[in-house]
C-alpha cells in the first residue's frame, strides 16, 4: 500500500519484477505518465488501484492478461482512448471503476457478460453508443451517469433505469440496430442501480447512504449490505455502530432518514450535541 503519499513521477519499470505481487494500491498520489504495459506481466495481481493520479494515455490491452484480477480502479485520471476489449475476458473481475477520465468510444459488449461483476462505474466519460446487454446480471452498483450512452427501453433486464431513455435523445440522434445513438450533447442515462438480489434500487437509498458516510467517514455508494446497517424497501431502518469508527458529531442529515426505527452509536467517540433534526424521525423507537 503506497496510496496517499504524494508520490510523483512515473510508475517505475522495476515493478514488473514483482511477479508474486497480488495487490497494488497507488491511488491518491501525483503519479504521471501512462499506465505501463508491463502490468500484464504480473499474473498474481488481484487488486489494482491507480485512481486519483495524473495518469494519461490509453489503458493498455495487456490488462487483459491479469486473469486473477478482481478489483480494477483507474478512476479520476486523464486517461483517453477506448475501453480495451481485453477487460471483457477478466472473468474473476468483481469491481470495475473507470469513472472521471476522458474515455471515448463504445463499451465492449463482453463487459456485460462478466460473470462475477457486481460493481461498474463509467460515469463522467464521453462514451457513446449503448449500454451493453447485461447478460449475467448480478450488479448491485452500476453508474453510467454523464456519459453519452443510451439504452433501449425493450432491454431493461432486471435493472432500475431512470426515466430518460433513447426517446429523450437530441433530435438529431439516430437509431442503429434498434438502439439510439446520442450526440455529444446528451447528458447520459443517470444511475442504473440494482442490489445483489437483482431487485431494483430506488435513487432514494443512495441519498440515505450519504448520511451513513458522514457518520463513519467512509464513501459507500450502496450501504445496505455493510455491517450495522439494515434496510427495508430501499430505506435505512436501523443503524448500529458499536465501535470506535464514529468520531462525531452526529450530522444534521440524520433527520433525512425518515424510516429509521433504531439508532445505536455506543462505544463511539462521538462529540457534540444531539442534532435538532432528530425530531424528524417519526418512526424512531430506539435511541
Please, could you describe this protein's structure?
The protein is elongated and about 55 Å long. The strands form four sheets. A seven-stranded mixed sheet has the order 2-4-6-8-9-10-13, with no helix packed on it. The two termini are 38 Å apart. Helices cover 5% and strands 20% of the residues. The chain contains one helix and 16 strands. It has two domains: 8-192, Leucine-rich repeat, LRR (right-handed beta-alpha superhelix) (Alpha-Beta Horseshoe); 203-280, Leucine-rich repeat, LRR (right-handed beta-alpha superhelix) (Alpha-Beta Horseshoe). With 287 residues, the chain is mainly beta. The longest helix is centred in the last third of the chain and has 14 residues, at 203-216.
Would you tell me the overall average pLDDT? Answer: 72
Integer count of domains: 2
CATH superfamily of the largest domain: Ribonuclease Inhibitor
Instruction: Give, in order, the helices and strands.
Output: EEEEEEEEEEEEEHEEE
Main beta sheet = 7 strands, mixed
Strand order across the biggest sheet?
2-4-6-8-9-10-13
- Over the alpha carbons, how many angstroms does the gyration radius reach? 21 Å
Using DSSP, what is the number of strands?
16
CATH architecture of the largest domain: Alpha-Beta Horseshoe
Ranges with pLDDT <50 over ≥5 residues?
151-202
The CATH topology of the largest domain, please? Leucine-rich repeat, LRR (right-handed beta-alpha superhelix)
Number of separate helices: 1
Basic shape: elongated
Query: What's the end-to-end separation, in Å?
Result: 38 Å
Q: Which class of secondary structure composition applies to the elements?
A: mainly beta
Name the beta content range.
Answer: 15-25%
Question: Which class of the largest domain in CATH terms?
Answer: Alpha Beta
The proportion of residues forming helix, as a percent range, comes to under 10%
Amino acid at each position: 500500500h503506497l496510496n496517499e503519499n504524494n508520490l510523483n513521477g512515473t510508475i517505475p519499470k522495476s515493478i514488473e519484477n514483482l511477479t508474486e505481487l497480488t495487490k497494488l494500491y497507488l491511488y491518491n498520489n501525483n503519479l504521471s505518465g501512462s499506465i505501463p504495459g508491463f502490468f500484464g506481466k504480473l499474473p498474481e495481481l488481484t487488486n489494482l488501484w491507480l485512481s486519483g493520479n495524473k495518469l494519461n494515455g490509453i489503458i493498455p490491452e495487456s490488462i487483459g492478461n491479469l486473469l486473477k484480477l478482481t478489483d480494477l480502479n483507474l478512476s479520476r485520471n486523464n486517461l483517453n482512448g477506448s475501453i480495451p476489449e481485453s477487460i471483457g475476458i477478466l472473468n474473476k473481475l468483481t469491481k470495475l471503476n473507470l469513472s472521471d477520465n476522458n474515455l471515448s468510444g463504445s463499451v465492449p459488449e463482453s463487459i456485460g457478460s462478466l460473470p462475477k461483476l457486481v460493481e461498474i462505474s463509467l460515469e463522467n466519460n464521453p462514451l457513446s453508443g449503448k449500454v451493453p446487454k447485461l447478460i449475467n446480471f448480478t450488479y448491485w452498483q452500476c453508474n453510467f451517469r454523464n456519459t453519452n450512452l443510451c439504452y433501449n427501453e425493450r432491454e431493461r433486464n432486471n435493472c432500475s433505469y431512470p426515466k430518460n431513455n433513447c426517446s429523450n435523445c437530441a433530435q438529431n440522434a439516430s437509431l442503429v440496430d434498434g438502439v439510439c445513438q446520442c450526440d455529444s450533447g446528451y447528458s447520459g442515462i443517470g444511475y442504473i442501480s440494482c442490489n445483489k438480489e437483482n431487485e431494483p434500487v430506488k435513487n432514494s437509498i443512495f441519498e440515505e447512504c450519504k448520511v451513513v458516510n458522514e457518520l463513519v467517514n467512509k464513501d459507500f455508494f450502496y450501504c445496505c449490505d455493510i455491517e450495522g446497517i439494515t434496510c427495508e424497501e430501499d430505506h435505512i431502518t436501523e443503524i448500529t455502530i458499536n465501535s470506535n469508527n464514529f468520531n462525531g458529531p452526529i450530522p444534521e442529515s440524520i433527520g433525512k432518514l425518515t424510516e429509521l426505527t433504531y439508532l445505536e452509536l455506543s462505544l463511539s467517540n462521538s462529540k457534540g450535541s444531539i442534532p435538532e433534526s432528530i425530531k424528524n424521525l417519526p418512526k424512531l423507537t430506539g435511541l
